[in-house]
Amino acid sequence: MKRAVLKKKSKELILHSLTKKTKENIAIIKSIENFFIQMRGYVFKMPKPGTPVVVSLSGGADSVITTAILLEEYGLEVFPFFISRGQKAEKPELKSVKYFSKYFSKHYPNLYHKPVIMSVPNPASEIKHLLKESLIEGTGYPMRNSIIIEYGAQYAFGLGSEGVHVRNIFCSFVACDGDFGAQTSMTGLRSLMQHICIDMGDMTWQVTALPLEKEMGFYLDKDDLLRWAKSVDLPVENTRSCFGSQEKHCGVCYACKHRKISFEDARLEDKTKYLDTRASKDLP
Ligand SMILES: [Zn+2]
């Protein structure tokens, strides 16, 4: 099969789509983007092939496929990191990370590096009990994603001691992630890029979610990523979406439900092993 072309949209159309999202704030996006145009003349530029970048790799379909796109389509040198933060699904997530690390090392031996596994509870174990489900509904764990990305910035900066200059951090939120919290929105991402540039006193830092990078014309969802992955024979059934700790996907949690629907939307066979095999449309 021929490699699928990633769907692109105009910046105006993407901004228009963002106006319909309750967690997005177009005025903030425009203000931060104007800041970047003033400070460095651009908002985001895709690094040239061979540029070293840091990538947040969780073992989920979105992060695995995003990593594959950065390697295959853009020829970037990828330094992945995984955060062992106290999540229930850590073991199966790590299994996916290890599987795809082997896969990427084989297919891109000159570009892909072994992932760094960072053990940093997020939120801190001592306060996690305070952040009850009812309290964090609509926000998720406060600052969870910015903390993850900040660890990525520390890793990127630290690579300097090995003579590797890294100022690009990629993550992989998709369009619908912005429905659930400001921290996974385009607005949140732009704010994070500004924060890291200011905090580091260096305006060359770039922080983005590739599937949402408006400057690249992307406003992609999981089904778009799955279609691309299929066209390059990436074995996505080995990625991990489920929030549960069991080996197989539960088939009923939000992440599983979204995974099933995305395969349906992409009109692709879902080879994931589920404990509960009911079709997603039958789920509550
Ligand atoms: Zn599940």
TrEMBL record:
Q: Look up the EC number in the record and give it.
A: 6.3.4.20
Task: Note the InterPro entries from the entry.
Answer: QueC, Rossmann-like_a/b/a_fold
Species, as recorded = Candidatus Berkelbacteria bacterium CG10_big_fil_rev_8_21_14_0_10_43_13
Q: Signal peptide position in this chain?
A: none
Instruction: Print the organism lineage.
Output: Bacteria, Candidatus Berkelbacteria
Q: Which domain of life is it from?
A: Bacteria
The protein here is known as 7-cyano-7-deazaguanine synthase
Q: Which UniProt keywords apply?
A: ATP-binding, Ligase, Metal-binding, Nucleotide-binding, Zinc
Which SUPFAM superfamilies does the record cross-reference, listed alphabetically? Adenine nucleotide alpha hydrolases-like
The family classification in the record reads: Belongs to the QueC family.
Q: Which Gene3D superfamilies match?
A: HUPs
Q: In which pathway does it act?
A: Purine metabolism; 7-cyano-7-deazaguanine biosynthesis
GO molecular function terms attached to this record? ATP binding; ligase activity; metal ion binding
Question: Per the record, what are the reactions this protein catalyses?
Answer: 7-carboxy-7-carbaguanine + NH4(+) + 2 ATP = 7-cyano-7-carbaguanine + 2 AMP + 2 diphosphate + 2 H(+)
Q: Does the keyword Ligase apply?
A: yes
